[in-house]
Write a structure and sequence with these properties.
This is SDR family oxidoreductase. The chain is α/β, with parallel strands linked by helices. Helix content is 44%, strand content 16%. The strands form two sheets. Strands 3-2-1-4-6-8-9 form a seven-stranded parallel beta sheet, sandwiched between helices. The chain has a two-stranded antiparallel sheet with strand order 5-7. β2, α2 and β3 form a beta-alpha-beta unit. The longest helix has 18 residues. The radius of gyration is 18 Å and the shape is globular. The termini are far apart. It binds NADP nicotinamide-adenine-dinucleotide phosphate (NAP).
Length: 258
């Protein structure tokens, strides 16, 4: 029996740690060839080495998704090494949280450069080869912030709302040409990005507990839980799922609050 992603070539951005790292491991276990497109030159190569030690084919390409030239480089390196690109997981993202009027222009630009433009750079770089082979799956890691607003987290939700728009626009545009574009919208997930946010409060443990209490199962998500959904969307088990967003938040997004 073949594995769910047998020999599929996948690029995963920001795969050095957190959700991206869990996704890289899950993809490799499912039989994929994984290209680690990561800006960190310590965690990125370490992840590629880990996957190789498990018997998977993997390649690290130093990539800052904010640079469009870097996106082209990683796409070319992938095609050069493996001949095709079947899957792109746009996972790299940063939290930029401010009160709106206190947001500097530099902070606004930093947020959009990674969380929205970075995704577009990567899509632009891989789409020609996906369209040429009439097949491809792009998975964008969005957020609960893609559909809801939490005060003082500006402009992150603006970029993440835009990411849903980008997902839908590209999903519709290329649906008849074999390319599916979907989003995953996690609630809180236990990674550095969440821990760093709690650490901005005087009592980080209280903030962590608040995050747990926000989710109906009274816990937050695990990176592996996002990774499993990415494997599904990348696989041939989801051929009619397109321009969709799948929430992974224990039901938080449908819970009524007054
Ligand atoms: P994380 O632990 O901070 O990991 C993010 C990874 O992306 C890091 O390896 C980071 O590299 C890399 N990265 C950041 N900017 C990059 C860039 N410009 N180019 C290439 N790589 C870059 O974050 P995470 O929690 O795994 O988050 C992953 C995604 O999930 C993000 O898009 C985030 O918005 C989304 N998300 C997270 C949560 C959550 O609660 N954790 C919830 C909803 C959505 P460095 O090590 O160099 O920083």
């Amino acid at each position: 029996m073949s594995l769910r992603l047998q020999n599929k070539v996948a690029i995963i951005t920001g795969a050095g740690r957190g959700i991206g790292a869990a996704t890289a491991r899950a993809f490799a276990e499912a039989g994929a060839i994984v290209v680690i497109a990561e800006r960190d030159t310590t965690t990125g190569p370490a992840m590629a080495a880990e996957l190789k030690s498990l018997g998977a084919k993997s390649l690290f390409v130093e990539t800052d998704v904010a640079e469009s030239a870097a996106a082209v480089t990683v796409a070319e390196a992938t095609l050069g090494a493996f001949g095709r690109i079947d899957v792109l997981v746009n996972n790299a993202g940063i939290n930029v949280f401010h009160e709106p009027l206190e947001t500097t222009e530099a902070e606004w630009k930093r947020c959009f450069a990674v969380d929205l433009e970075g995704v577009w750079h990567m899509c632009k770089a891989v789409l020609p080869s996906m369209l040429a082979q009439n097949a491809g799956s792009i998975i964008n890691i969005a957020s609960s912030h893609s559909s809801k607003i939490i005060p003082d987290t500006f402009p992150y939700p603006v970029a993440k709302h835009g990411l849903l728009g980008l997902t839908r626009a590209l999903g519709i545009q290329y649906a008849a040409r074999g390319v599916r574009v979907n989003a995953i919208a996690p609630g809180y997930v236990e990674t550095d990005i969440a821990r760093d946010y709690w650490n901005t409060f005087p009592d980080p443990d209280a903030e962590r507990q608040k995050a747990y209490d926000l989710h109906p199962p009274k816990r937050i998500g695990r990176p592996e839980e996002v990774a499993m959904t990415a494997v599904f969307l990348a696989s041939d088990e989801a051929p009619f799922i397109n321009a969709a967003s799948i929430a992974i938040d224990g039901g938080r997004s449908v819970l009524y609050h007054d």
